[in-house]
Structures are given as structure tokens and as C-alpha cells.
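HUMAN: Now follow C-alpha cell order:
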Amino acid sequence: MTGSSVERALEILRNGGLVAIPTETVYGLAGDASNEAAVRRIFAAKGRPADHPLIVHVAAAEQLGEWAASIPPAATVLAQICWPGPLTLLVPKAAHVLSVVTGGRDSVGIRVPAHPLTTELLTRFGGGLAAPSANRFGRVSPTTAVHVVADLGSRVDYVLDGGACPIGVESTIVDCTTDPPQILRPGGIGTEEISALLDGTLANAHGPSRAPGMLASHYAPNATVLLANSASEAATIVGDTPGAWILDHSDDLVSYAHSLYAELRAADDRGVAVIVAVMPAAHGLGHAIRDRLSKAATR
């Protein structure tokens, strides 16, 4: 069922159901983060491995302390400046946070999304909503309600339709439990901006997978994805690959991020066998786009 009724979404969530929620990044598959049965339904609906942690979405930055055992200084800075917005902070989890949410880890990802429908929903709900992307695990993330229905069908009880997601790629994840903090997943806030806010005390990800999007292969369409460093290189590859299609918005990073997942899905719908994607420059949203394309190209 799809609609824009926050009241209906609240009723379903309070009764242990699953609701796809719009955010500024992608649609999330939400369940009550304090309800173990609801959280397990999220994993089952997506076909998601049980050790792959979920992000808890809350209405306001002031709720960070309700989910964190302690708040590292970097988390305080980033929450005050970047929330609501496309940023997830990994912090030590409070004792009450369910292990099923964190994949058995001692840390939890927290985010305050910036979408009016979901802000209203979270404010009225009062607690936290565990919400990974509302798609089958490992596949292309959804940026419209139609994408959610196509992927999950009856496995989601309600899709709160907030229109197309304006950013189009997932949140940036910063691990604030490490010193210095690490970028675990580039996303809607650029690495350079995060680094500047932390006075340059920021590291690239290393160590075990401990947050969404850290697997080598992810965000994958049915088509084979080949990567090119320029439009001319993409044209050469297409010339040698019958039926291939070029994906390139490298001159406009905002447009590239916004349309990336929709175009990958559209290529699958058209039966495109090979997508040749031009990698954008590694700055701003380019970091996130390069990350998603690289993982889509890994089989």
C-alpha cells in the first residue's frame, strides 16, 4: 500500500509493521528499533545478512544521547552542524540498543534525516526507527516509492510516498568511535566538508566491515557495469561492446548523484546488458558517486 498518510504509517510502526520512508538520500525500510521482531522482519524482507548493522533514525540531534553510551567530541560537532542531513554517526551503543540492530557490535549508527514527512513521522513516533535502504540487499537503492514497490512488494506494509529523493545517494557515515574518526562510507556530505569541520582530523576507512555500504560489492544492477575515466574512454569501450550504454553526468555532480540509481534501474528495465559509467572527479559528491559505481562494477 502506498500513500502519504503519516497517521497510517505511525499505526503500522507502532504495531510492529514495516514502512518505507522517504529521506533526502534514498528510501529506507523502517521498523521500530526497540522491537526485535520488527527489526528481524527488516532483515528478512531485504534478504540482508544478520551481521550487517542497521542505522537508527531519530527526529532530532538531542536524541543522540538516548542511543549512545557516550558521545565522542567529533560526534557532538558533526551532529550540531550537519543534522538534520545526510550524515550517519557511529557511536558507542547504549545498553538498551538491541544487538540485532547493530549486528552484534558495540557501536550503533544514528542519523537525523531531512525530509518533512519523515521528520513529522519521527517526531510523532518519539523513538528510533531502524531503517536500511528499502530494496533487496546488494541491489540498487530506491529513490522513489515506485522503486520500493518494485523491489519489495508485499514485504513492506506501507510506503510513505514523499516523492523523489532530492540527493539520491546514501548518507555519509563517520565512525566517531575511532581516533581519528574515519569515513566509512562517502555520501551526501563531502569528505572535504567533514574534514574541515573536524580540523583535518579524519581518516579513510580501515579495519573490519562495521557499517552499511562497506562491502566490496553493492548497489548492483542486473547489467554489467564497466568503469571509464573520461567520456572518450567510455566511447571507446562502447565501440568495442555492442549494446552497451553510457552513463555520464560527470560535469554536474548534483545531477549525477540525484539520477544515478534511477538511471541504473532504467537501464535494467530496458534490458541493457552493459553500462559504461564515467567516473567523476574525486571531490564533493564525486566521492560517493565513485564509491557506488565501483561497488556496482564489482561482481
